[in-house]
């Protein structure tokens, strides 16, 4: 069972929201952030290195100091204002005619420690430490993590009640995705949401494994410094947007490789034929249409690769994943790529960029071959998290991404 509570969000007044709201820190490099950031953009707080000319190291002390200075300034200027009392909030996103409705809330760090907040990816210590520094220096969760939870009819009904009213925020960002935000203001509804989630068995980390781990670690640090710790202090909680699992869609997460491990194109095709039915599909983009089917771009042509029977285990929650099949039978066996997290010969391309990005990177000469995968399902993610297993790196890509700046959670 999970423990949640409402919080008094620090957020932009309605007239500033489109200027303040920004894409997450980890989907932009520093140069892209500098080009994208307007005067009031949250990017000045999440990527403060952009305020220097030339751009400085994002991990340097001057950058951290600038982040703190900017967060304070945004509040002093009235671009960010704290609500007068704790609320839950509805944050909905619209993409390609589909809308998903999340609840903005605080989750408890104890649930991460106990496993009630379930993860499906490994985290890296260096990235955890980077996110911890940002939470420490601001004493706040500036950006939310993205959770899924088992669909609940009563929660959906409460959300629908507020969604029927006028939104607090309602805008379409430059990427064409709609963002909509309501305040759940009635105390009876706030109390009931808290009660319902006390009976919900688990959260699933969809996006933000490092931010989740960092929040839990900072909470543990702060409780260690407080001899009067009770477990109810604000630092025990961190901000998330939690969506019903039935509303979420995972899109493909694809791979590009810099070389053929000494093979010619003909030798690669022959090696692939041992474990796959290989068919040339021509110059037009070819998209996989089912599990265990892959598409490959090589030498100006697309190919379909269908894994042969007996080459994978449908009864193994990890072995059945297409990322596992591709890693075992192609990347490792043929191309010699053993560790997806450290090998510099491979890169990953989110499906939001389209398969044209794969052919572009190969045609440019930067990469030699590209592989497109059929997306993982939410059921697969939940099954793996429930079994305590971990997915291979770069398996899931959730879209749309949460917009940062709609709500901030202070730890004190």
Structural key phrases:
about 400 residues, six-stranded antiparallel sheet
Radius of gyration: 23 Å
* Strand-pairing-aware structural class: alpha+beta
Strand segment tally: 21
Q: Helical segment tally?
A: 13
Mean pLDDT: 95
Q: Poorly predicted ranges (pLDDT <50, ≥5 residues)?
A: none
- Give the CA-CA distance, first to last residue: 25 Å
User: Quick one: biggest sheet?
Assistant: 9 strands, mixed
Portion of residues within helices: 25-40%
**Cα shape:** globular
Give the amount of beta strand, in percent.
15-25%
Give an overview of the whole structure.
The protein has 412 residues and is an alpha+beta fold. Strands 1, 4, 5, 6, 8, 9, 10, 11 and 12 form a 9-stranded mixed β-sheet that branches. It has a 6-stranded antiparallel β-sheet with strand order 15-17-16-19-14-18, with helices on both faces. Strand 9 and strand 10 form a beta hairpin. Helix 4 packs across helix 6 and helix 6 packs across helix 9. It starts with a strand and ends with a strand.
Secondary-structure topology with pairs:
Layout: E1 4-5, E2 10-11, H1 17-20, H2 30-36, H3 43-46, H4 61-76, E3 81-82, E4 88-95, E5 98-108, H5 109-114, E6 117-118, H6 125-138, E7 140-141, E8 145-149, H7 153-163, E9 169-172, E10 178-184, H8 187-197, E11 203-207, H9 209-225, E12 237-244, E13 250-251, E14 253-257, H10 265-272, E15 276-282, E16 293-298, E17 301-307, H11 322-332, E18 346-350, H12 356-363, E19 369-373, H13 378-386, E20 397-398, E21 409-410
Parallel strand pairs: 6-11, 8-12
Antiparallel strand pairs: 1-5, 2-3, 4-5, 4-10, 5-12, 7-21, 8-11, 9-10, 13-20, 14-18, 14-19, 15-17, 16-17, 16-19
């Amino acid at each position: 069972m999970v423990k949640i509570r409402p919080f008094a969000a620090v957020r932009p007044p309605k007239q500033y929201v489109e200027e303040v709201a920004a894409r997450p820190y980890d989907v932009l490099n520093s140069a892209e952030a500098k080009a994208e950031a307007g005067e009031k953009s949250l990017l000045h707080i999440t990527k403060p290195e952009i305020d220097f000319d030339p751009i400085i190291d994002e991990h340097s002390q001057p950058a951290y100091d600038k982040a703190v200075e900017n967060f304070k300034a945004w509040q002093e200027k009235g671009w960010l204002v704290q609500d007068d009392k704790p609320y839950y909030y509805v944050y909905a996103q619209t993409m390609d005619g589909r809308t998903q409705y999340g609840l903005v809330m605080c989750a408890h760090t104890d649930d991460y420690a106990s496993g009630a907040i379930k993860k499906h990816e490994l985290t890296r210590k260096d990235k955890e430490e980077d996110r911890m520094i940002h939470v420490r220096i601001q004493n706040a969760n500036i950006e939310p993590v993205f959770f899924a939870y088992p669909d609940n009819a009563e929660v959906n009904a409460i959300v629908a009640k507020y969604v029927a009213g006028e939104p607090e925020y309602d805008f379409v960002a430059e990427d064409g995705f709609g963002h909509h935000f309501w305040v759940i203001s009635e105390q009876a509804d706030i109390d009931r949401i808290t009660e319902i989630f006390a009976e919900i068995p688990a959260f699933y980390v969809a996006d933000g494994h490092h931010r989740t781990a960092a929040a839990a670690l900072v909470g543990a640090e702060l409780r260690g410094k407080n001899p009067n710790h009770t477990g109810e202090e604000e630092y025990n909680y961190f901000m998330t947007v939690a969506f019903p699992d039935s509303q979420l869609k995972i899109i493909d997460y694809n791979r590009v490789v810099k070389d053929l491990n000494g093979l010619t194109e003909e030798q690669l095709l022959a090696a692939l034929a041992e474990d796959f039915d290989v068919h040339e599909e021509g110059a037009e983009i070819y998209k996989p249409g089912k599990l265990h089917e892959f598409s490959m771009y090589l030498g100006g042509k697309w190919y379909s690769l269908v894994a042969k029977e007996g080459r994978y285990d449908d009864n193994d929650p990890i072995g059945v994943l297409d990322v596992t099949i591709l890693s075992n039978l192609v990347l490792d066996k043929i191309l010699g790529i053993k560790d997806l997290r450290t090998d510099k010969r491979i890169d990953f391309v989110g499906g939001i960029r389209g398969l044209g990005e794969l052919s572009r990177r190969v045609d440019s000469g930067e990469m030699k071959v590209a592989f497109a995968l059929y997306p993982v399902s939410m059921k697969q993610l939940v099954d793996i998290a429930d079994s305590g297993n971990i997915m291979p790196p770069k398996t899931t890509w959730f879209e749309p991404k949460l917009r940062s700046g709609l709500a901030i959670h202070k730890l004190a």
